[in-house]
Amino acid sequence: MKKALVFSAIAIAAVTAFATAASAYDAEWKRGRIYYRSVCTSCHVAEPIGSIAPSTRTKAEWAEYLKADAHAKGKDKVSRFLSKAYRAEIKATNKAAEKFADVADEELTADVAAFLMRGAKDGDEPASCN
Amino acid sequence: MSTSPSRFPGLAEDWKKIFVEEWSPFFGAVLLVLIVLALMTTGLFWGVFGGVKYWGDRLNAAIGLAPLLGIGEAKEGFLGHRMSLMNIMLVLGSATAALLSGQFQPNRAPKLEYVWGALGGSLMGVGASLAGGCTTGGFFNPVVHSSPAGWAMWAGLLFGAWVGLKVLLWTLDTIEWGTAAPSPIRVPEGVKRLYPILGLAILVGIVAWSAAWWASPEKQVASRAIVVAAGFAIGFVMHRSRLCFARSIREPFMTGEGTMTKAVILAMAIGMPLAALLFRAKVIDPYVAIPATFWIGSLTGGAIFGFGMVFAGGCASGALWRMGEGHAKLWVAMLFFAWVGSIASAIFKKIGLTAIDETNIETWEVTAVGRQAFLPDMFGGWGVALAIGFGLLALWYAVVRWNETTEKLTVL
Questions:
Q1: Among A13, A7, A15, A9, which Cα is nearest to B29's?
Q2: For residues B227 and B200, what is the distance between their CA atoms, to the nearest angstrom?
Q3: Is the ipTM value over 0.85, yes or no?
Q4: Mean of the per-residue pLDDT values for chain B?
Q5: Residues of chain B contacting residue A31, judged by C-beta atoms under 8 Å apart
Q6: How far apart are CA B200 and CA B1, in angstroms?
Q7: Residues paired with B370 in a beta bridge
């Protein structure tokens, strides 16, 4: 029991030091998840192409996709669907778009990217669509 | 070990203390929570049922049930799936500890015990599917992550274990079939003498494996190196200290003895505030290890799991490390835990019980049996959250301590 207490004290000191030194990450993958599900997936399901699970691509493929900014084989831009303007267009019928109507484009793009990286085939939690 | 005590008395004594003699469960509990926290600093968390369910999914795929249950194709192999890898390493860690201590012993059980192993494992599969995890992912992790889901499962586990013990006692009085002990498996002395060397060889092999993956340019492979080391260490520590969550729940009802319970309480008392620091520093997101089952799924799943683990003879992590020690009954329990766990998870998801509500636009996940619940978000800060956590731990400790002297709660 004494050994355990000494160990506990060392553990507390070590984790405290680590937690203090650790840097915060900015993107909110959970917000990205909501947007991806409620806006991206819900629209894709209605279209002939069907839903696209994050786990169907690797992190590198998703990064490349976002960088290319080409939606529907270049007919459109991905960034358009993440923009405030698009959210304003659909917010009357889409709760997520309404909820995140005022979020900056760069922030929401980073959130969705964080979710895709996390849910990618080689991500921390490969995510499929239910 | 062949090291001569006369030539290296100090080393031989240290070897005995570290690798042969049983560690204090309190020491084991502290080491376990340190490994869990170390994992969290890398963005990972300890889980067992996810890996067990993956094994069951593969079994169902092999026997042709997967399409019927809607189980998809595996994206990763047994060593690629994070929790499957961690479980395999846990068994290996325990087996290594058992070999090094000379306590490895293939162990056959009476026939009836296999029936109880199958029944208990199956119920554990159903319970874990409802609770979103076993005693690790449904109870220990959520409590450390300040989620009330862990406490709801705890209540269910206590109730289930109490009922399970009552029923098990009844079977002892009424069922005679299959109770005769089989002849023990005799391991030749020459082989037994090789145990420590074999254990040492596995230990060196694991270190080399982990180091090789760590050096990999592929990030995912490098992160699996941490899983290899952590899983192995968890198995080793659990075996050496005979740490067991099932015992911490069951023992006060069985004999009144509460040492294992107090060790688990200590682990959680250390883990909760330290994990809070990691969450506050955004080192890891608390929600990654909180199941969307608060409170119905956690409570009912806990009760079913608690009943099952009494018959199986161990919870998920406890079954894994006892498998590494050589207990055939726990292999049977694990087989059914995995198989039924996979079936139950698929069915519950299909009928909408545990399927994630995709229309929910909150940052927490919601299912028909509950939601992800994180106390600091529910109460607007850490003060109340930690007060609730420590209050419940104190209550548990007080009741167990009182029962140690009065035995009012024992069913024997």
A1: A7
A2: 20
A3: no
A4: 95
A5: 363
A6: 10
A7: B367
Give the count of domains, chain A: 1
Give the position of tokens 């959970």: A30
Could you tell me how many residues make up chain B? 412
Residue with tokens 């959130």: A111
pLDDT digits (tens, 9 = 90+) for B82-99: 999 999 999 999 999 999
- By three-state DSSP, how is residue B242 classified? coil
Q: Which of A2, A12, A18 to mutate: most B Cβ within 10 Å?
A: A18
Tell whether A96 is covered by a domain: yes
Is A5 domain-assigned? no
**Dihedral angle of Cα B361, B365, B367, B369, to the nearest 10 degrees:** -130
Provide the 3-class DSSP secondary structure of residue B367.
Answer: strand
CB distance from B43 to chain A under 8 Å? yes
Per-residue b or e along B31-57, where b marks 16 or more CB atoms closer than 10 Å to that residue's CB:
bbbbbbbbbbbebbbbbbbbbbbbbbb
Residues of A with CB under 8 A from a CB of B: 1, 3-4, 7-8, 11-12, 15-16, 18-20, 22, 24-25, 28-31, 34, 37-38, 41, 55, 95-96, 99, 121-122, 124-126, 128-130
pTM of the model: 0.89
Per the listing, tokens 């669509």 go with A129
Give residue B140's region: left, alpha or beta (phi > 0; psi -120 to 50): alpha
Question: What would the pLDDT profile of B185-242 be if each residue is shown by its tens digit?
Answer: 999 999 999 999 999 999 999 999 999 999 999 888 898 999 999 999 999 999 999 9
Q: Is B270 on the interface with A (CB under 8 A)?
A: yes
Is A15 within the bounds of a domain? no
Q: DSSP assignment, residue B202?
A: H
* Amino acid in position B2: S
Could you tell me if B225 and B211 are in contact, meaning their C-beta atoms sit under 8 angstroms apart? yes
Residue A130 lies in a domain: no
CA pair distance B338, A103, nearest whole angstrom: 43
Task: Give the residue from A104, A42, A46 showing the smallest Cα distance to A79.
Answer: A104
Tell me which residue in A7, A22, A30 faces B281 most closely, judged by beta carbons: A22
Interface test with B, best of A8, A51, A93 (most B CBs within 10 A): A8
B270 vs B15 pLDDT, higher one: B270
Domain span at residue A43?
Answer: 29-119
For the segment B170-190, the average pLDDT, to the nearest whole number, is 93
**Residue A125, pLDDT score:** 78
The one-letter code for the residue type at A62 is W
